[in-house]
Design brief:
This protein has about 280 residues and is of the alpha/beta class. The protein folds into two domains: about 90 residues, Leucine Dehydrogenase, chain A, domain 1 (Rossmann fold), CATH 3.40.50; about 120 residues, NAD(P)-binding Rossmann-like Domain (Rossmann fold), CATH 3.40.50. The strands form two sheets. A six-stranded parallel β-sheet has the order 1-9-8-7-5-6. Helix 1 packs parallel to helix 9. The longest helix is centred in the first third of the chain and has 22 residues. It is globular, with a radius of gyration of 19 Å. The termini are far apart. The chain binds NADP nicotinamide-adenine-dinucleotide phosphate (NAP).
């Protein structure tokens, strides 16, 4: 068996082409308006700066605009909340991205939750998470939503399958598990206190690695024919799962790089386009 490659780069490129068309159509029918993503970068962490830049570039590739807001690392939580609220009330802004992580003295949860749910195109608010978990409309958290889109593109069925998600962070593991539950998978969530991790993983039809440790999940814990999703990315081009031996045993797997990563930014942009379409259609 050779695993089907869940090629996020390919799917992201395909979707960008259709998003460009949607942005053009919107521009034509609204007298020149396009969706706008506001990106907020707090401090000068080089990795965060690179991610924000990549997101701005992705906006430009589909003909959209981004508004880059750079704030000093010393900013206080209240001042950040005020900035976010201004963006909530700015009719020219359709999506707000607060780059994670913010400096430790800032209350990141309060900052995320300040984002209006209508502009929460990165899917980071508690309200958005709750709505999504209840099957109500909300923008999904970008990385797990990107994974769902990738699985859907390749017709990977989840209903009735046993999905094991390793990791329970608010931006990845938890929303991933709820999305898979919504898709009728039977979901197990594993974390740092889980006992017998390998045993849980051995029964997975679908395994999602979101641990943040290079090749932590071993190939021989995973059964033949499983669907393998690796959200990790580490120096040296490896993820959270030991993927090499799985090429010949898995039903499908996400390559690292080029699997989950490109789908994250693509999902953020897609949800901003959706938000822009909604707002502009309703006259805002
Ligand atoms: P995180 O916030 O550090 O969370 C890691 C999770 O792994 C935690 O829930 C933790 O459990 C769990 N964990 C740690 N050690 C474990 C162990 N020994 N056994 C079982 N579980 C363990 O990380 P994250 O932000 O979710 O990111 C996870 C991975 O995805 C990272 O590799 C990151 O680089 C990647 N990522 C990729 C993208 C993308 O766009 N491709 C986006 C975001 C993240 P506890 O909760 O018990 O501590």
């Amino acid at each position: 068996m050779t695993a089907i490659l869940l090629d996020g780069k390919h799917v992201a490129t395909l979707t960008e082409a259709s998003m460009s068309e949607r942005v053009n159509a919107l521009r034509e029918r609204s007298g020149g308006r396009t969706p706008v993503l506001a990106t907020i970068l707090v401090g000068d962490d080089p990795a965060s700066a690179t991610y924000v830049k990549m997101k701005g570039n992705a906006c430009r590739r589909v003909g959209m605009e981004s508004m880059a807001i750079e704030l000093p690392a010393s900013i206080k939580t209240n001042d950040l909340l005020r900035q976010i609220d201004e963006l909530n009330h700015n009719p020219d802004v359709h999506g707000i991205l607060l780059q994670h992580p913010v400096p430790a003295h800032i209350d990141e949860r309060a900052a995320f939750d300040m984002i209006s749910v209508d502009k929460d195109v990165d899917g980071v608010t508690c309200l958005g998470f709750g709505r999504m978990s209840m099957g109500e409309s909300a923008y999904g958290c970008a990385t797990p939503q990107g994974i769902m889109r990738l699985l859907e593109h390749y017709d990977i069925a989840l209903s009735g399958k046993h999905a094991v998600v390793v990791g329970r962070s608010p931006i990845l593991g938890k929303p991933m598990a709820m999305m898979m539950l919504q898709a009728n998978a039977t979901v197990t969530i594993c974390h740092s206190r889980t006992q017998d991790l390998a045993q849980h993983i051995a029964s997975a039809d679908v395994i999602v690695g979101a641990v943040g440790r290079p090749e932590f999940i071993k190939a021989d814990w995973i059964k033949d024919g499983a669907v393998v999703v690796d959200a990790g990315y580490h120096p040296g081009g490896v993820g959270d799962i030991e993927l090499g031996p799985l090429q010949a045993r898995a039903h499908a797997l996400t390559p690292v790089p080029g699997g989950v990563g490109p789908m994250t930014i693509n999902t953020l942009i897609q949800q901003t386009v959706q938000s822009g379409e909604k707002a502009i259609a309703s006259g805002h």
